Amino acid sequence: MLIALPITGPETLSAVESLVALTMQVLGNGPAPGGVLSADVLFSRDGDVDRVSSIDEDGTVSITVDARLQHAIEQAVG
Question: Residue 52 region, left (φ>0) first, then alpha (ψ -120 to 50), else beta?
Fold first, then answer.
């Protein structure tokens, strides 16, 4: 399963965080129904795909806003 969200502004990061939290909850309950499930957050633009998330030892997921993602957010805001 792939869930894709358009970047509409800074609020998109809140939506991504909510989806990651839900995914981590599903992963914490054993094997995911239907197969392999990843908590990775990917950013795709102009044919380039980068992982923008990391998970620490406590299971906390962090989103790294690099220059490309920041530029996309700024463009969405206008």
Answer: alpha
For residue 61, the tally of other CB atoms under 10 A from its CB is 17
pLDDT tens digits along 18-43: 888 888 887 777 777 777 777 788 88
Give the list of residues 6+ apart from residue 55 with CB closer than 8 angstroms, or none: 39, 61, 62
Q: In the numeric block, which tokens belong to residue 72?
A: 């996309």
Strands (E), the chain: 42-45, 48-51, 53-55, 61-63
Give the separation between CA 78 and CA 69, rounded to whole angstroms: 14
Q: For the chain, how are helix, strand and coil distributed in percent, rounded to 5?
A: 35, 20, 45
